[in-house]
Amino acid sequence: MIKIIKNGEVYAPNYLGKKDILIAGDKIGFIKENITVPRKFVDIDIIDASGNYIVPGFIDSHVHITGGGGEGSFRTRTPEIQLTDITKGGVTTVIGVLGTDGTTRSMENLIAKARGLEEEGITTYVYTGSYQVPVRTLTGSIQDDIILIDKIIGVGEVAMSDHRSSQPTVEDFAKLASEARVGGILSGKAGVVNIHVGDGERKIDFIENIVENTEIPITQFLPTHMNRNQSLFQRSISYAKKGGIVDFTTSTNKKFLEEGEVKCSNALRILLEHGVKSNNITFSSDGQGSLPDFDEHGRFIGIGIGKVTSLYSEVRDAIINENVPIDKALSVITANPADILKLPMKGYIQKGRDADIVLLNKENLKIESVIAKGKIMISEGKPIIKGTFE
Prior knowledge:
Elements: E1 2-11, E2 15-24, E3 27-32, E4 44-48, E5 52-56, E6 58-63, H1 83-87, E7 91-96, H2 107-120, E8 123-128, H3 142-148, E9 152-160, H4 170-187, E10 192-197, H5 205-213, E11 221-224, H6 230-241, E12 246-249, H7 254-258, H8 264-273, E13 281-284, E14 290-294, E15 300-305, H9 310-320, H10 326-331, H11 335-340, E16 357-361, E17 367-372, E18 375-379, E19 382-383
């Protein structure tokens, strides 16, 4: 099926102006001022994007696709994600992670769920491992996992500065990062180390120690939850100015924000005002992960669940409430993760790339349509394609 999107304004995520886009199969075929619709010798689906911004499909680089949690015992294990939990948020590419529980949640299950979601219509990748070090892998080696398993693009989320971590040493982290880097180099993948940063006083000391005392570059690390408290957020500014990548988590609740968590839309504006390069900033949702609450003694007192739909909500708030330019706001969930994670077919509206496209209402910036690999998943705000068991 050939599709032509007409009459929309394109943010690719850089602004291209009013353009027509031809989609052939699952790829972007042409981007032109005006594409004339030929006489029908083949079926052509015309999508009128009048009143819309046309933007790249969103990339969520941290989603617990098999569920997460369990910090409040077995009954608090969050359920697996469903396809429309993802697509309703404009997300067309997800990176699956495990988390606290590397025992009842396995790498085999993570890979199987990723392949299932891909069969249902979106693009998926995963990280090998969970909070614990030594990392639990498929092959017995981080490096081998990255080289040999197509879906695996890095390692994580490994916990640091958190009472739930396995308390690894700096040396443990350095060896882990080295394996991931070499695996990435040999396979053409990013080989990033996705790090869960907790509330601990050490914050990201280990990362900066490794960067200062080894040959591993700062860009090998992707620390997430960097907005979880004011102190860590302030540290994120200096870290990003050194060239580090910082990832802010969009799933939150009123209590966390009242206790000092920095809202992502606000965090983006502040970093840009401090002169941080916009391409060093990403958002991820922590979707379907648990949002556990602990008291001052580390005792579990409550739990929530992350939502993939929070990803774009924070980008929209950054544009509307924080006056962040549209292209810079969109980049944190499109071009930036695509570049950092070495996903060459994603993150941009560009000839030859995957036809992952979102149509936004120009007046209120709400999601109207979502196209993943050339297929319409959401139309007029409603799911067209649902998951197998939805």
